[in-house]
């Protein structure tokens, strides 16, 4: 998140806290660290307890930014077309930012320099399992040769986004699993 946006967001967070407390006279402590987005709101009247974690401006924006980054990762060229919808749905379900089902983000802290944490990595279910790693290199070479033979014989496979043969299905699943792993890294890398 750009520095300018972090500064604006922190200003919004502190103002939100002051308003929740009922004004500056009831605000015991309100801060937001523009580097980590770690925030604290403490009211002398305890009014901050009525606000759900997902209602705080910093929480909402961090979650929304991470969901957007996750969804952008779904458009990445390594994600097969058939897996994109599942990828988008995973991002939205795991990062339901404005709801009770929002991810656990540590943005509310006790001290100004306390660390914050990001959201969970998106989980995408792969319907078929990836093949087990072969015991030696010769087995890998044999598997590669067999896969090439299977692909040459069936012209329908070239135009279909889904595999039709058993060996190409395993290759497809392995590639899909690698794409899912790459997305998980992207989704957690914002902070």
From TrEMBL:
<dbReference type="InterPro" id="IPR056124">
    <property type="entry name" value="DUF7707"/>
</dbReference>
<dbReference type="Pfam" id="PF24808">
    <property type="entry name" value="DUF7707"/>
</dbReference>
<protein>
    <recommendedName>
        <fullName>DUF7707 domain-containing protein</fullName>
    </recommendedName>
</protein>
<feature type="compositionally biased region" description="Basic and acidic residues">
    <location>
        <begin position="140"/>
        <end position="157"/>
    </location>
</feature>
<feature type="domain" description="DUF7707">
    <location>
        <begin position="3"/>
        <end position="100"/>
    </location>
</feature>
<feature type="region of interest" description="Disordered">
    <location>
        <begin position="111"/>
        <end position="172"/>
    </location>
</feature>
């Amino acid at each position: 998140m750009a520095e300018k946006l972090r500064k604006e967001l922190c200003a919004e967070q502190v103002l939100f806290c002051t308003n929740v407390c009922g004004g500056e006279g009831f605000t015991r402590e309100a801060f937001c660290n523009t580097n980590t987005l770690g925030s604290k709101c403490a009211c002398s009247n305890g009014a901050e307890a009525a606000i759900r974690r997902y209602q705080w401006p910093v929480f909402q924006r961090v979650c929304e930014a991470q969901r957007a980054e996750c969804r952008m990762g779904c458009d990445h060229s390594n994600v097969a077309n058939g897996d994109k919808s599942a990828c988008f749905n995973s991002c939205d379900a795991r990062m339901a930012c404005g709801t009770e089902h929002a991810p656990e983000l540590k943005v509310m802290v006790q001290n100004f320099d306390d660390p914050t944490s990001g959201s969970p990595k998106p989980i995408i279910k792969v319907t078929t399992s990836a093949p087990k790693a072969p015991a030696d290199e010769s087995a890998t070479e044999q598997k590669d040769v067999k896969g090439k033979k299977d692909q040459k014989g069936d012209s329908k496979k070239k135009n279909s986004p889904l595999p039709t043969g058993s060996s190409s299905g395993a290759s497809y699943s392995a590639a899909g699993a690698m794409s899912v792993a790459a997305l998980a890294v992207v989704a957690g890398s914002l902070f």
